[in-house]
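Lab notebook, bench 4. The sequencing result for the construct came back, and we need a structural model before the next group meeting so we can plan mutations. Quick request posted to the team channel:

Model the 3D structure of this chain.
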Amino acid sequence: MKKAKRRTTSGMCAVLGIITLGWACVLLTGAGPAISQNTPAVFNSIGKPMPPDAAPLEFQTYRFMRDEPRSLDVSVNLYVGQWNEFLFETLVAKDENGDLIPAAADRWEISPDGKTWIFHLRKTGRWSDGRPVTAHDFVYTFRRSLSFETANPYAAFYSDIVGAKAYSQSPDADPAMLGVRAIDDHTLTIETTHPAPYLGLILSVPTSMPVPKWQVEKHGPRWTEEGNCVTNSSYRLTEWQHGSHMNFELNPYYDGPIKGYVEKIHRVFRHPSTANLLPYENDEVGFAEVQANELIRVRRDPELSSELVSNPTDGTWYIFFDTREPPFNDVRVRRAIARAIDREAICRVVLHGAAVPAYSMLPVTFDAHGDYKAYQDFDPEAARKLLAEAGYPGGRGFPTMEMWLRQPRPDIRMVAEVIQGMLEEHLGIGITFRSADYPVFTNYMFNWNIDLGLVPFFGDYRDPKNMLDMIWRPGSRGRSRHDFENDEFEALLDAADQEIDPDERTAIFRRAERILVEEAGAAFVFHPMTNNLFKPWLRGLKTNRFGGKTVIFTDIYIGEDYSEAR
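Done. Here's the predicted structure in token form:
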């Protein structure tokens, strides 16, 4: 297969944070002639004008590879259907800088006390079956997704909404108690228990996507299957061949502000653990994530290295514990494990610089990030002393523990094995591994049935509320990600909810995070860097305020020079 012509780095792009809106790799089939800059304007099938440097419409097919979802019903469980979020449009969306822009709602207001948000929906909004999109659809969505019966793992995400916490935890709760109401067909109000300046950001994430009541009630859990799935975004599902692929195309009923360029999307099912760079190197895909085990080779390759861009993410990999049962209910055991891990070596030797050591939950991209290295820095002597004080000198009497891994890529498996060796060497304790897919892992994690686990969390929005409160606030089994509990920590989270001054609010979160780190609610391991390869013909990538390029699904299109790569 013909190799693509290499361009200068001016055609490259960088991604700050995780890639969202459901895409991983791009694959185009066929070839076509380049478009002249003098060619008359071309519009795609829903009337969006194509950029002058775009390939012909017949080649605007966008293909990515990811494992097969169990469902597309992400508003009740994000983990069963990631990477297809582009099918549903939230009230508001985010631009390349993470700032709110209109989506299903074309405007909104916030009350003077900051507790009531009023959204005005676009009056011409339509579902993919032609029905109007109304405020009642969003009321139904939130009542369904936050109900006790749904057991949504993201229910705590919405705990600031009036009545949400009690509603999600009570089997016989009246839906009317939830502070989400339709004033009329196109006006929606959402009330919060305290000022929540980040609510708009929460309402822009995939778990806030609306669902069609009539299809849910008719088809039940199968409402997202081929032939049943009705969407309200720029795209609609046209085919789902289980075990093989999914196809999507532009939705002719969509007239909103976030129209896509590409005519079709094709998702090929491939497990992340089998991902490699071969499709990219064969010019089959326009984007590829570079795993740590391939990073050295890529950097040494003069062509690949010219297309490689690295950037920090809003993510953290950490080891969590069952803190309420032996042996991890003893803080000295948790601290010992945290101090026995050489993060510098992991990032330098195992991950080849694809990460930076983590000593806390918040990455440096968060304003509230603090320096807590002193509490979890590598210190094997202190680690051995702590374990001995806990009653396990030299690891004697310590049970062999099973560490759970969530669909581990090769580099993450390597990290886990290195940690295994460090704990054996420095503490004399042994661990084994169990790998599980996303849904199984998530179910066990939220039900607190994992004694020891290695997992990442990437911020949904850049506010400490997301990575400290949502993840670590004490909750109940089945509805909270972790079981860590500390009264002072919880009190500080409550105080942050009531604080209006942004500087004082940041200071409160910093005090809370110090408790989490000092009490070893988790052993934080590393903050990943994104390492991505981009083909020059992958266009529509916008520069954000952080100096990188942000991938937004509806901005992507295929450049005219694509034909040169085929």
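The chain has a mean pLDDT of 88.
Will bring this to the meeting.
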